[in-house]
Amino acid sequence: MSDRILVAGVGNIFLGDDGFGVEVARRLAGEELPPGASVCDFGIRGLHLAYQLLDGVDTLILIDALERGEPPGTLYIFEPDPAPASAEVLFDAHGADPASVLAMVRQLGGSLGRAIVVGCEPGEIVERIGLSEPVELAVDEAVQLVRRLVTKQSLREDDRSC
């Protein structure tokens, strides 16, 4: 039995570096992944992502541009700390910040095994299509990182079923 792993790229391709997650998902979509793993470009459809997670996912790997004060192109990997199920979350239907998506899933009565965020420090969130040079250079590294995470999560599930 394989883990159900969803790789979700989020962001707005019309706002420069905010399209980072979408570009990583686009590049991963053509690759062969372990059984049970899928890749989807959710773009700015954060609400759609929350509803998709209600179908059940063991691991979510969310890819997004995240401002954390580091040089543009810096990659981050972390497990978000979502708001408790009882917390009220104002959800923007076009937003997809990790904590809001996970809180919305809980508010809708769903649960999620594990969430991992792969983020990239944007350089320019401006109206234009295309990534800045440092963020574009980080895309290949992020693709490799996500590929390793998917494989590791898949192997983790295989170990549990033995």
CATH superfamily: HybD-like
- Give the biggest beta sheet: 5 strands, mixed
The total domain count is 1
Contiguous runs where pLDDT drops below 50 for at least 5 residues: 158-162
Task: Name the average pLDDT.
Answer: 83
Please indicate the percent range of residues in DSSP E strands (runs of 2 or more): 15-25%
| Contiguous helical run count | 4
Radius of gyration: 15 Å
Q: State the total count of DSSP E strands.
A: 5
| Helix content, binned percent | 25-40%
- The CATH class assignment is Alpha Beta
Q: Structural class given helices, strands, pairing? A: alpha/beta
Can you offer a commentary on this structure?
Helix 2 crosses helix 3. By secondary structure, this protein is an alpha/beta fold. Strands 2-1-3-5-4 form a five-stranded mixed β-sheet, with helices on both faces. The longest helix is centred in the C-terminal third of the chain and has 28 residues, at 133-160. It has a single domain (7-157), classed as HybD-like (Rossmann fold, 3-Layer(aba) Sandwich). The protein contains four helices and five strands, in the order E-H-E-H-E-E-H-E-H.
Q: Could you outline the blueprint of secondary structure elements for this entry?
A:
Layout: E1 5-10, H1 20-29, E2 37-43, H2 46-53, E3 59-65, E4 75-78, H3 98-107, E5 114-120, H4 133-160
Parallel strand pairs: 1-2, 1-3, 3-5
Antiparallel strand pairs: 4-5
Helix pairs in contact: 1-4, 2-3
